Amino acid sequence: MSAVSIEDAVGQIVLPGDVLVLSTQSRDAPLSLSGPSTSNRPRVVCGPGLMRQEDDLLVNKCGLLRHRDPAIYWVDSQQKRYVPVKGDHVIGIVTTKSGDIFKVDVGGSEQASLSYLAFEGATKKNRPNVKVGDLVYGQFIVANKDMEPEMACIDSSGKANGKGVIGQDGLMLKVSLGLVRKLLIPQNDIVQELMNIFPMEVVIGMNGRIWVKAKTVQQTLIVANLLEACEYLTAEQRKHVFSKFSDNVI
Amino acid sequence: MEAVGSVLREYGCEQSLLSRPDGSATFLQGDTSVMAGVYGPAEIKVSREIHNKATLEVILRPKTGLPAIQEKNQEQLIRETCESVIIGSLHPRTSITIVLQIVSDAGSLLSCCLNAACMGLMDAGLPMRALFCGVTCAMDNDGTITLDPNFRQQKESRAVLTFAIESTERKVLMMSNRGVYSATELQQCIAAAQIASEKLFQFYRDFIRRRYSKS
């Protein structure tokens, strides 16, 4: 199996080197005012793990091929190393403070830079109170392979919207990127279920870092362990485990 | 046993067994076993960075003692093989490090190292244009070819050839050899290795399918 139709491969395992042939249906020439278009290139969006190879797609990562309408394809793989992507929300650790910018470790190949003006309410006179070793929750505004990644803790309207320096206590844990994606799926209610048992604050970064803080240190540790355990639990198993705790607490 | 000895020894694999590296794998071929740890794309010293692609480094650690000339030679062969399949241009100015630890050597060591490296790279999720596998062939005095020889078969043979074969067109990426052989014998070995590679790639696919079916 090295060249298969892309429809057949959706939901299946793909390996590097596999060639996915786009179906003729998606190759329909786009309507054009200047007569029939000569190039009938399919309009397809390639996500992570896929590359264009002439008219077909070349897989460069192993994992499950996913599809979303109309024609968005990507490879869902289990990976540990984070690669910065523009727009991702991540948890970083401030490593150095040099003049106008902070250097932030986000787990990628390079440290991200964070301007001191990229905090809510910060001005040249009113600097944010950020120290080396602090955790910050921010968003990538520049992230590509050729440039140093750049973060911001405000959105385009200048509001923090939950971003910024994370409080002093609480616990940060590292989990796999797959678990983070699983937790952040809108229809997934792991976090909501946990919150019903233990009232807590939680911050989830796309770079595999999670920060939690519950009422007591003991509860924080329980929550951290439960989150880590969720990776390999089915919905029923999870409900079973959670029910044990809800009985104990109340 | 088949006539040409075109059977590989029992092989097996395990992925993600180490917690610290970004990707890890162990590969077994008979009694030969190699463990691989892959780190990358990671931070790199400015002096070693390449502006348009990733810097690849392979470290081969023998079971005992310090790496000697033979290990350095094999490191280079493995590095060049990996470099030809990894799409380094997607992660410029980063480092990719592959550490191979020999756990036990019972013949066909280089091919086992190649297989472990490929499995490790897959686990780390690094972009590759194709997969590769290593196949060792040993030839005795009467010209019979034994695939994936053990230590004794390797010692008694007239020539030992190791090939790295890529998965899309079954092309030879790398070749390492010892001993005397003719041009036709070389062609026979390549053909045998290509057939054997088919089985290994099928094993890779089945292995990954099994792994992803669990999650």
UniProtKB/TrEMBL annotation, chain A:
Residues 12-78 form the Exosome complex component RRP40 N-terminal domain. Its main location: cytoplasm. GO terms for molecular function: RNA binding. This is Exosome complex component RRP40. The gene is exosc3. It holds the Pfam family KH_6. One of its GO terms (cellular component) is nucleolus. Belongs to the RRP40 family. Keywords: Cytoplasm, Exosome, Nucleus, RNA-binding, rRNA processing. It comes from Xenopus tropicalis. Residues 170-218 form the K Homology domain. One of its GO terms (biological process) is TRAMP-dependent tRNA surveillance pathway. Gene3D superfamilies: 2.40.50.100, K Homology domain, type 1, Nucleic acid-binding proteins. It is found in: Cytoplasm; Nucleus, Nucleolus. PANTHER family: EXOSOME COMPLEX COMPONENT RRP40, PNAS-3 RELATED. It comes from the Eukaryota.
From TrEMBL, chain B:
InterPro entries: ExoRNase_PH_dom1, ExoRNase_PH_dom2, ExoRNase_PH_dom2_sf, PNPase/RNase_PH_dom_sf, Ribosomal_Su5_D2-typ_SF, RNase_PH. One of its GO terms (biological process) is nuclear mRNA surveillance. Gene3D superfamilies: GHMP Kinase, N-terminal domain. GO terms for cellular component: cytoplasmic exosome (RNase complex); nuclear exosome (RNase complex); nucleolus. It is found in: Cytoplasm; Nucleus, Nucleolus. Its main location: cytoplasm. Keywords: Cytoplasm, DNA-binding, Exosome, Nucleus, Phosphoprotein, rRNA processing. SUPFAM superfamilies: Ribonuclease PH domain 2-like, Ribosomal protein S5 domain 2-like. It comes from the Eukaryota. Residues 8-127, 131-194 form the Exoribonuclease phosphorolytic domain. Signal peptide: none annotated. GO terms for molecular function: DNA binding; RNA binding. Belongs to the RNase PH family. Homodimer. Component of the RNA exosome core complex (Exo-9), composed of EXOSC1, EXOSC2, EXOSC3, EXOSC4, EXOSC5, EXOSC6, EXOSC7, EXOSC8 and EXOSC9; within the complex interacts with EXOSC3, EXOSC8, and EXOSC9. The catalytically inactive RNA exosome core complex (Exo-9) associates with the catalytic subunit EXOSC10/RRP6. Exo-9 may associate with DIS3 to form the nucleolar exosome complex, or DIS3L to form the cytoplasmic exosome complex. This is Exosome complex component RRP46. It comes from Xenopus tropicalis. The lineage of its organism: Eukaryota, Metazoa, Chordata, Craniata, Vertebrata. The gene is exosc5.
